[in-house]
Amino acid sequence: MQKSHEARQRLLRLGIFRKVEAVIDTWRGDGALPNGLDVTFEVTELRRMTGSYHTLVGNNEGSMVVGLKLPNLFGRAEKMTFQFSYGTKEASYGLSFFKPQPGHFERNVSLNVYSVAGQFPWSSLRETDRGVSAELSFPLLKTSQTLKWEGAWRELGCLAPTASFAVRQESGHSLKSSLSHAMIIDTRNSSILPRKGGLLKIHQELAGYTGGDASFLKEDFEIQLNKTLFWDSILSASLWGGLLLPIGEKPTSIADRFYLGGPTSIRGFSMYSMGPQSEGDYLGGGCYWAGGLHLYTPLPLRPGRGGFSDLFRTHFFLNAGNLCNLNYGEGPHAHLEKLTECIRWSYGLGILLRLGNIARLELNYCIPMGVQSGDRICDGVQFGAGIRFL
Length: 390
Known about the structure:
With 390 residues, the protein is mainly beta. Helices cover 7% and strands 58% of the residues. Strands 3-4-5-6-7-8-9-10-11-12-15-16-17-18-19 form a 15-stranded antiparallel sheet.
């Protein structure tokens, strides 16, 4: 029965069946063992073409998504999808082809063609990317590995006539060709509101050696630990960090830099509104770190477990971080001083709602501290929606 269950789960993971049922009966064939079993898998395949319509919650952004899928295109669980998304700050469409290795569904190759047009009001910037990419994903020991090549034609422009001169200098067309690698170890029981387990994610990207105008090395990581405490409460700790190193004399682009602040990272600050800025436009930074400590508890007056109230949690938090540019000729000691001299931090409490395993909503009362000149704060009530929170 255990082996039959595992086989059923593997068949469902192929994404080509609507329903898979395992029927176990005594063996009725001639010459069989008296205690033999007959296992029959009854499957219902998906249609040759399926469509979908749904909404998607990103980092403080909502989108309408329309998709078209061709499952099991050539009979070996290949899949081709077309997706169009229109959101409050971004519109995109893309065509993808997915091919798993026969017998090893976790190992797969995907090819993508896409176009993404986004608006970034905190920088008075609009960006349109058109590109192609190829990915190879595979498990290695207890990790999930992804190798990717991406080529993109990027068009940057001013979102408002009041955009700063620094943003205008960044405007124009550029080509980026990059190689990237991602490693993930995820033992959490949920990605939205985990009760236990941890996450380690390391990502590196190298641009410039395979052509294009952009030339840099980008490293970033994410660590999260979760533990269930007494009275069904959860203690969670997170740490993010990243470093962007230019290669050659050309400075990095505003589209490649890190941004920090907002209801999904350092709460109490406006969205991506801290760090280097020019005339009110935030330009991003080449180095950052951010940490968070959270305590999630049940509602004080919840009627009992297993009901609608389990989707809500009371939230107490402490966030801290910094975003800056480094002078790479000064040495590690000067870099460390710069990252620790102007720390922004905040604390507060609120309530959150878990939307299944899709997204979560937060309504917090925030008290920002360590505010620096030029930072925009959100002192008081702040609303956040997304899938990735500090």
